[in-house]
C-alpha cells in the first residue's frame, strides 16, 4: 500500500513538475534561437574560400534527464512498440540546448560562422534497467571570426 | 596552439604531419552530485552537476592532447573529434583525438 502511494506521488510530481520544466525550457530555447539566428552554423567541412578567418574550436554540452512519469510511459511503450514521444522530446531539447550553448560561446568571441558542426550523443546512466534515463549531447564546431582587415 | 575540427586552414599550408594525438579522461561523480541527480531523475530537466563534470573532464582530456602535441613539436591540431562512453555506472570516459601538424 505504501509502495503504491509512493509510486503515485512520484508519478504526479514527475508529471506536473516535468511538464512545467519542459514548457519553460522550450520557451527559453525558442527565445534564444531567435536571438542567435544571425550566427550561421554550417555542417560543411570546408571553410569559405578566399577569406582568411581566425578560428577557434567551440563546444556546447548538456546533460538532460527525463522525468519519472515519462519514463514510466516509455516503459509501457516498450511492451507495445511504436514511437516513444517522451524520449524524442528529451533528445530534441538536449540537441537544441547544446547547439545554443555552442553558438553562445561563438557569439561571445565575435564569430561570423560556425563550420563543421558535429553532434555527439551518449547515454550516461547506463546499466539501470536498460533505460536511457539521462542523455548527454555535445555539439562542437569551428568558429570563424570576422577577418580583421575587413572590420 | 591552434585547435580546429576542420581538415584545412584557409590560407595556411601544412608543413609536416605528425599523425594522431589523443587525450582521455575517466571521471566518476561524487556522492553529493549523485543524490542530486537521482532527485532530478524524478522531476526531469538538466543535470547541472553532470554537465559540469563532463565539461571538466573534457577540458582535461583536451589538455592532455595538447601536451602530447606540444611534446612532439606540433603547433596545431586539426580534425579534432570527441567521443564519450560510459565505462561503468556513474563513470564516463571522454576521449579526444586529432591530427598534430606544423603550420607555416
From TrEMBL, chain A:
Belongs to the UPF0145 family. The lineage of its organism: Bacteria, Pseudomonadati, Pseudomonadota, Gammaproteobacteria, Chromatiales. SUPFAM superfamilies: YbjQ-like (SSF117782). It holds the Pfam family YbjQ_1. It comes from Sedimenticola selenatireducens. It comes from the Bacteria. InterPro entries: UPF0145_dom_sf, UPF0145_YbjQ-like. This is YbjQ family protein.
UniProtKB/TrEMBL annotation, chain B:
It holds the Pfam family YbjQ_1. InterPro entries: UPF0145_dom_sf, UPF0145_YbjQ-like. Belongs to the UPF0145 family. This is UPF0145 protein FHP88_10560. It comes from Sedimenticola selenatireducens.
Amino acid at each position: 500500500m505504501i509502495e503504491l502511494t509512493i509510486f503515485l506521488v512520484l508519478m504526479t510530481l514527475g508529471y506536473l513538475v516535468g511538464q512545467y520544466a519542459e514548457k519553460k525550457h522550450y520557451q527559453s530555447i525558442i527565445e534564444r534561437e531567435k536571438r542567435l539566428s544571425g550566427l550561421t552554423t554550417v555542417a560543411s567541412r570546408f571553410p569559405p574560400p578566399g577569406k582568411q578567418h581566425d578560428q577557434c574550436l567551440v563546444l556546447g554540452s548538456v546533460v538532460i534527464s527525463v522525468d519519472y512519469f515519462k519514463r514510466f510511459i516509455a516503459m509501457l511503450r516498450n511492451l507495445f512498440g511504436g514511437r516513444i514521444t517522451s524520449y524524442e522530446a528529451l533528445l530534441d531539447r538536449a540537441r537544441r540546448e547544446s547547439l545554443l550553448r555552442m553558438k553562445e560561446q561563438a557569439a561571445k568571441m565575435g564569430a561570423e560562422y560556425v563550420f563543421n558542426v558535429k553532434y555527439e550523443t551518449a547515454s550516461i546512466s547506463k546499466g539501470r534497467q536498460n533505460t536511457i534515463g539521462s542523455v548527454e549531447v555535445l555539439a562542437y564546431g569551428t568558429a570563424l571570426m570576422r577577418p580583421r582587415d575587413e572590420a | 596552439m591552434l585547435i580546429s575540427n576542420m581538415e584545412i586552414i584557409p590560407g595556411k599550408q601544412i608543413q609536416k604531419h605528425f599523425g594522431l594525438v589523443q587525450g582521455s579522461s575517466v571521471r566518476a561523480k561524487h556522492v553529493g552530485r549523485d543524490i542530486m541527480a537521482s532527485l532530478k531523475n524524478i522531476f526531469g530537466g538538466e543535470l547541472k552537476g553532470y554537465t559540469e563534470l563532463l565539461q571538466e573532464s573534457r577540458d582535461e582530456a583536451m589538455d592532455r592532447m595538447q601536451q602530447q602535441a606540444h611534446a612532439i613539436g606540433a603547433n596545431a591540431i586539426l580534425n579534432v573529434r570527441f567521443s564519450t562512453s560510459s565505462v561503468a555506472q556513474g563513470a564516463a570516459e571522454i576521449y579526444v583525438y586529432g591530427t598534430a601538424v606544423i603550420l607555416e
